[in-house]
Amino acid sequence: EVQLVESGGALVQPGGSLRLSCVGSGFTFGSYAMNWVRQAPGKGLEWVASISGGGESSSIADSVKGRFTISRDNSMNSLSLQMKSLRAEDTAIYYCAKGFGVVTKYNWFNSWGQGTLVTVSS
Amino acid sequence: DIQMTQSPSSLSASVGDRVTITCRASENIINYLNWYQQKPGKAPNLLIYVASTLQSGVPSRFSGSGSGTYFTLTISSLQPEDFATYYCQQSYSGLTFGGGTKVEIK
Fold first, then answer.
1. Which residues of B touch A100 (CB under 8 A)?
2. Which residues touch A66 (CB under 8 Å, ≥6 apart)?
3. pLDDT tens, B15-69?
4. Which residues of B touch A62 (CB under 8 A)?
5. In a 10 Å sphere around its CB, with 0-12 CB exposed, 13-18 middle and 19+ buried, how is residue A49 labelled?
């Protein structure tokens, strides 16, 4: 059974930094693209970032470009999202999601974690 | 960037009703259109990918159709567990979600 477990969510002040992690199990982690999707309170889903199975290619949403970085460590079955210069509008539940294949293009998300809450507030 | 517009944004329906949700893309996305269901307090769950392929384990009352810029998700006979919010997502160029359709009990 595929399992994705996120961690690292917290209350952080505007301008601060935070690193989210996601550990996967039940599948060959390095064979699948991985993704971050967020959901602000009471709002819809917003794609944040994707990284290919081997980590050689990645893409980031314009809304967080230059502030967020996605990375992975396949030896640890781990996905990360480094967030800096955080703003109030980054407040959301952040979900880790497994892609259907190894590349990020033409992707869909067939397994999701339970999410981790990031709150940006003074 | 490709914009995805879902309609309606909400609807009320009864158990047993046939429900159709529409998703329009701002440009041709071929068939790279996926549908998710999200229940309150839970992560989204994949229902359909590439417009019409049912994800394993999803009941056959769910179906998807369309191509190009116009897509639909149909629930043939609404069940109590289907009351949720539904999102479309395009994956042809980048990744964009629609705004969601909340299906409520009438």
1. 49
2. none
3. 999 999 999 999 999 999 999 999 999 999 999 999 999 999 999 999 999 999 9
4. 1
5. buried
